[in-house]
Design goal:
The chain is mainly alpha-helical. The chain has one domain: Winged helix-like DNA-binding domain superfamily/Winged helix DNA-binding domain (Arc Repressor Mutant, subunit A, Orthogonal Bundle), CATH 1.10.10. It is 46% helix and 6% strand. A two-stranded antiparallel ribbon has the order 1-2. The longest helix has 16 residues.
């Protein structure tokens, strides 16, 4: 999976924070929900416009950022 297919950063959207393309839902928000114990299914129920691939892209993005520190 290429997270770039699902994640974008644009200074005009959410002050440039990485978001899921076509939304104002930040990667940070998804990671926070997951760290609080929310399942992928629960996140999709909270944000019905999301899908599994987009949530997995958030994890791939985080992994990539950490591996490049």
């Amino acid at each position: 999976m290429k997270f770039q297919d699902y994640i974008e950063s644009n200074h005009t959207i959410m002050l440039g924070k990485p978001v899921i393309k076509g939304t104002r839902i930040t990667v940070e928000l998804i990671l926070k929900k997951l760290s609080e114990g929310a399942s992928t299914k629960q996140i999709i129920e909270m944000y019905p416009s999301l899908n599994n691939e987009q949530i997995n892209a958030c994890l791939a993005y985080a992994s990539d950022v950490i591996s490049n520190e």
